[in-house]
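Fold these two proteins, one after the other.
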Amino acid sequence: FIAGSLVGAFIGGKIVISLPIDVLRVILALFILYAAWGPKLKSIINSQWGLSIGGLITTIVTMFVGATGPLVISLIRSFSLSPQSIVATTAACLTAQHALKVMVFGFLGFAFIDYLPMILAMIISGFIGTLIGKRILLKTKPQLFNYILSIVLTILALRMLWQTLSNF
């Protein structure tokens, strides 16, 4: 995943300004809806090449959209892992992606210092959310977890579609 992410960060950094965000939102939302409710892509994704390509594509997308958690977790779900492993693997992948994104935007001249209070607030709230989420995750049955995850992914995808349609 990280190998693909490295290439994706480089490519995404090169084209970050040129792709219309509305096109990307529609593609991302449709993929998330498919991943939440369509047949699983186990034979394609469940390989080293599939995961590398997933890292490449999702890292390019994160350069434009920002929060690709729903897309990454959709890919990770194809591995038939436990709910705890799905969350942990997704967290590791997103950490790698965001670290790469920070480096690329730093090289492009983004002034992170101007946003330091917001960044610190996001880190603190993310830590608190992780503590609360872990307690809930450990008490949730795998079937309920998968159903709730599909509902949450659907809501996020529909929100993206709504954002895009409201721009027209």
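Now the second one:
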Amino acid sequence: MLIWFDRVPLGDELAKMIAFVLLAGFAIAALTGAIALPILRRLQLRQHAYEDAPATHQVKTGTPTMGGICFVTPMLVLLTAPQAPFVLQLFFIIVACAAIGFADDLLGIRRGKNQGLRARTKYLLTALVAILFLNAISSSYGMFPRDVVFRTAAYSLAVPHWLWLVLGILAVTGTIHAVNLTDGLDGLATGTIIPPLCAFAVLGFWQVIPAAAQVSLLGIGACLAFLLLFNRYPAKMFMGDTGSLALGAMLASLAILTGEMLLLVIVGGVFVVEAVSVILQVAYFKRTGGKRIFRMSPLHHHFELEGWPETMVTSRFWIASLILSAIGMAIAL
């Protein structure tokens, strides 16, 4: 049974609650991965390396994918407290986006190349999920900082409701796309998202939004299990779009619930930079008739082609994410 609270726990109570939820997320994800890995191998649900990726990535072809199911099953714990505020809404957005990613992965595998759903289709589907999520939580005015896009201990920035809805849709679709782009090296997206989830766990406790705090902790536990057991270099299993879309939806929905959509740009800064590197590269390439800013985008591929070992790129992106998340918490608290 998930430990639910309507106040900020203190002392031993807080430590026990955090340990319980973290361990629940870790254990369920670890068990899911242990069961899923041989099944994915048997069903030949394997990754096809992106054709334009660095040549060293071709050895990754054949690695089982769709491991993102490990981020979904821990969320079933939320259903032990279905009447708690925002539990079903968070469960919905994470699972729905994971389902979109699953369809994308499956289509890519059947086609025999790393091309599943069209980008436009993914944007429209995730935008629809975002609209449904925002509509579902909008009626809970006063239970979370609705219409607030940035807040600190002494300051709160609110916008008109229609603008909050637009920014919410952009936060969900943009974060999902950015996390998806970052999922290009063993352990990169998994390790990079842990510090932002830690930040939102702290903010969830600070603002007494139980769902935000506990979904963050479940996500941290699941990511640690997936990273340590299955996704660290050399990866035994990839998360696929099943995982990257679920994690992106999780991060964005937590930012919305805590009233920190603008802070997400800082704590999720690594994902922002990865997405911006692609936008700049494409725009510059078209404008100059073929010239490039980076050797390859997203940015992690640029560093690979500069000669950095994959593990070095990954670890430095983790460190950058940790620093940015710490800065974000320092601003908000």
